[in-house]
Amino acid sequence: MTANASSTISPSLPQQQPILRILLIGLLVVLSGYYIWVLYKAITPNVSLAYKAYYIKNQTLYWQPKQPNLALALPTTLETTNNIPNLSRAGWNIDASSNMRELTQQGGLYFTLPTAPMTNVTITFTLAKAPLQLKPIAFTFNHYQGSLLPQDQGKTLTAQLPKQQFLSSPQQLQSLILTVPTPLQVTSINLTPIDTNTLSLPHNTGSINQNIGNLK
Predict the structure, then answer these.
(1) Is residue 215 pLDDT above 50, yes or no?
(2) Which residues contact 88 (CB under 8 A, 6 or more apart)?
(3) What is residue 42's predicted lDDT score, i.e. its pLDDT?
């Protein structure tokens, strides 16, 4: 009797092994899919640009929930003594003093625009005082490299940002980073589109026409 019972039970064990193997493979597939989904959500969290720039990428100096997209409307003037969410975390002193904020080494701005500008944009850094022997300062705007040139006896630095260098989508973060050899005491930053209607003609147009007439 015992021999007969064992002979009837033992053949079922090999039959169960493929089922267990399929169940284990299915469990591994489900777990792998779950962890891939978790990893994707960690890499691409559903948060605002301002939240991502401040908490995840450590790009900005201040967190401002009222400006979730770090959007600016042109023209605009940013007073650096305010806790502007567009200031980079690198370079700027966290505390402002004496109506200015100091910028050292590398730092700048992060912002978005509702629409890309139709003309070049003039950017101006106004300083509390003119540093001695202030020279042009290199900057990178998105993928464009340029120089801020001293104006007004060294109290301002100005450059033009080409319109084609602005990112077209309002969900893309524009970045402007300066490389400063000596600290700058910045009071404000101004961004103004160039008004093509106010561009003046060359002053010597009349003399050119006169010369052409003489040649005839």
Answers:
(1) no
(2) 59, 60, 61, 107, 108, 109, 110, 177
(3) 62
Nearest to 47 by CA among 34, 56, 37: 56
- Neighbouring C-beta atoms of residue 46, cutoff 10 Å: 6
The more confidently predicted of residues 184 and 206 is 184
Q: Which of 102, 73, 75 is nearest to 87 (CA)?
A: 102
Q: What is the dihedral of CA 200, 78, 95, 109, to 10 degrees?
A: -80
Q: Which of 126, 120, 175, 118 is nearest to 148 (CA)?
A: 126
Is-above-0.85 flag for pTM?
no
Higher confidence at residue 96 or residue 212? 96
